[in-house]
Each structure stands twice: as structure tokens, then as C-alpha cells.
Specification:
The protein is of the alpha+beta class. It is built from 15 helices and 4 strands. The radius of gyration is 33 Å and the shape is elongated.
């Protein structure tokens, strides 16, 4: 029988105070308030009201706590010190004899939920310091100033990318049905892409063949068409665009820097291991997510589909990315050069 609400309990008391018989009380509660209650329950409720003057349930003690607050804080500290430990491993270090569920309940109380760890590039102290100094240098740049920068980068896309998990709905008997399995290829076709973006749209996207050294980078990527004309073309109104590239060996070799200097291409200083500061990484992620929807079986089909997705990105998308740059810089300063959420 469901527990009565306070309103229903009040009705029982009121009806009995009005001189109704128990039969009349039960009939009214059933027909008028759609509440089925036994005679014994009504009698106990009236008796309790006369003795205590209240219709609320008395506080219940419940099962006594097995762990005190101090022990709970110890469990929390153990978890923070050993982030990869399971609840069973933490349980083995606690002096009290508690269950795994108790450990989980305590950790959830402090907001420590078991989650998948984020993957980010390793930053050594020198790189953290370089990122922090770079962020301090550009912390006062406005969105308008960032719009002068043309961001570039490379990425690899695979026809059969097995790095993500795909969830489907199936019965227990359809585990190996062709429509319920994800096909995998150990060494599937892949493409190596170089691209550049500006504040109002995407620039050229190019297919990188074989390993990219300094000479190939200069002749096949930067010189066709000339990088200074590319930077100016994806600016609006046309200005002298600042070129950004990461610190890959082919990008920052002496010959490449001389190549750019001879052609009067302004180069944005860049800290190493900083994909979170390069907004083109978001474009690669967006295309990588969308490409899952297509069944590309060859490298040429994959490159064609990437080109289609690349050139269909609207100016609003790039505007949003450029507006995030000041916040990215502030996050690096806040984290003292450490990894950010981007």
C-alpha cells in the first residue's frame, strides 16, 4: 500500500474530527480522493495525531554509519593520490572492512566519478614555460588582431578508423550479424592532408605524398600557390596575413624560415606541443567526426570526401573559432602553461 501524503493524512484527521465513522472515512477517501487505506492505518494515524500533535513521520535512525567523516576523507585523499586505482584497490588500503559499493558511494559524494582520461600531448617543464611566456606575449590581442592570422596544420585520415567506439542496438542473438558488426582493417588506406584557414573561410587543402621534408614543404605546399598570396586571399578585407605553423622539423628548419623571410611572409611565434592553441585542430576534429558517416574504401574517395566537407564549412564556423582565441590564451596563463580543455 502506498505511503499517504500529508494532504491525505490531514483529510483523514479532518473527517474523523467531523464525527464521521470509520466506514464513512474509508468510503470518502476512496471515492473522493482516490486513496485506498485500511481501517487500522486510519486508527494509528488518529492515535499518533492525538499523542504528538503531528501527522509527519518521526525521524528514523537507519543503519549506523560504519565509517566516520575522517575515514571518508582518507579514502578521498587515497583516490586523489592514485587516480588510476579502482574501488577494489582503494578498499584494500582502508583499515575498515567495507564493501566496494561503500567506497564508490563515498567517492561519488566528493564528486570523484570514474571517467575516461583525456588524452593530451606530454608537456615538459621547458615547454610549459614556453607556452606560458607565449600566452603572456599575446594575452592582450583582440579578436580583430587574431583575424590577421592564417592557421595551418597537417592531419592524417583513415578509411577504416578503429580508434572510436560505435554503439548499436541489437538483440542477444545478433552479435555477429553483418548489420551489427563494425568492419576493421589492420592497414587500411589513409591520406595525409595539409590545410590552411582564415577568419572568413578555408584556404587550399593539399594531399601530402610520402614523408614531408623541408624541400617538399617549400616547393609542393608553400610555393603552389605562393603562401603570401594564400594568406592575403583568405583575409577580408585584404591585408598582410600572418602565417602560423607548428614546430614540425620541416616547418621550422633554417631553409624554411629563410624561404618565408625571402618572400616577406610574417610568421607567428609558436610554442611546441600546443595543438590546443591551433584552431585548425577543431576543423580536423569536425571533419574526422563527419567522415565516419561515409563508407570510403579507397584513399582517393576519402580525399574527395574530405575536400567536400572542407570547402562546405561556412564563415560562421570560422568566426566562432577565431573568437575563442583570447579565451585559449587566458586558459594557458591560468594553468601556468599547462594543458587546456581545447
Amino acid at each position: 500500500m502506498p505511503r499517504l501524503t500529508e494532504i491525505e493524512r490531514s483529510q483523514v484527521i479532518t473527517l474523523k474530527d467531523d464525527g464521521k465513522t470509520w466506514a464513512e472515512v474509508l468510503d470518502i477517501m476512496k471515492n473522493k480522493y482516490d486513496c485506498i487505506i485500511s481501517k487500522r492505518a486510519c486508527q494509528n494515524l488518529v492515535k499518533k495525531h492525538k499523542e504528538t500533535g503531528s501527522i509527519k513521520d518521526l525521524p528514523k535512525s537507519g543503519r549506523p554509519r560504519k565509517l566516520d567523516v575522517r575515514t571518508e576523507r582518507v579514502i578521498r585523499r587515497i583516490c586523489i593520490k592514485n587516480r588510476t586505482w579502482t574501488s577494489n584497490q582503494i578498499r584494500a588500503t582502508v583499515a575498515a572492512n567495507v564493501s566496494r559499493m561503500t567506497i564508490n558511494r563515498i567517492l561519488l559524494k566528493y564528486g570523484l566519478k570514474y571517467r575516461i582520461a583525456k588524452k593530451k600531448p606530454l608537456l615538459n617543464p621547458k615547454q610549459r614555460r614556453a607556452r606560458y611566456e607565449w600566452a603572456q606575449q599575446f594575452q592582450h590581442w583582440t579578436v580583430k588582431q587574431w583575424r590577421r592570422v592564417c592557421f595551418s596544420d597537417e592531419s592524417i585520415f583513415k578509411c577504416f578508423n578503429n580508434s572510436h567506439t560505435i554503439k548499436i542496438r541489437r538483440t542477444s542473438m545478433e552479435a555477429y550479424s553483418p548489420s551489427c558488426i563494425v568492419s576493421t582493417v589492420k592497414h587500411g588506406p589513409q591520406v595525409h592532408i595539409w590545410g590552411i584557414i582564415g577568419p572568413y573561410g578555408a584556404g587550399p587543402i593539399k594531399l601530402v605524398k610520402e614523408n614531408l621534408n623541408s624541400l617538399k614543404y617549400q616547393t609542393e605546399i608553400l610555393d603552389n600557390p605562393p603562401i603570401n598570396s594564400v594568406c592575403n586571399a583568405i583575409q577580408f578585407p585584404r591585408k598582410r596575413g600572418i602565417f602560423q605553423q607548428d614546430k614540425a622539423p620541416a616547418h621550422w628548419s633554417k631553409s624554411t624560415k629563410k624561404y618565408l623571410s625571402d618572400r616577406n611572409v610574417p610568421l607567428l611565434p609558436w610554442p611546441g606541443n600546443s595543438p590546443d592553441l591551433n584552431i585548425i585542430e577543431n576543423v580536423w576534429g569536425h571533419i574526422g567526426y563527419k567522415i565516419r558517416e561515409y563508407q570510403c574504401t579507397t584513399a582517393s574517395d576519402l580525399f574527395a570526401k574530405i575536400q567536400e566537407l572542407w570547402y562546405n564549412l561556412g564563415p560562421e564556423y570560422f568566426d566562432k573559432l577565431y573568437k575563442s582565441m583570447p579565451q585559449r590564451v587566458r586558459n594557458v596563463i591560468k594553468n601556468r602553461g599547462g594543458t587546456t580543455k581545447y
